Amino acid sequence: MHNWTKSLSKFIAVVWPVERPRRNALLSALEGWAQADADNEVGTDEEIVLAPQTGEVGESSAAKDDLEDVAPRRRRDT
Length: 78
Hints:
The chain is mainly α and 78 residues long. It is built from two helices and two strands. The radius of gyration is 17 Å and the shape is elongated. The chain starts with a helix and ends in a 10-residue tail after the last helix.
């Protein structure tokens, strides 16, 4: 049990801070989508929910209609 807690502490101290920027970079690369629950902090059982962005300045109505036809996929940890 002691080794497990030591490994978890190392993971949180070393790996965890790197993963959040990588996730943010991925989300920013998904043009037209945003994280729906962006105010929530990262948790061990985090679920990222994506929703189409609407009402952007300069966005055509055709592009908006295309985004609304696509449903985001949800990933659940099992």
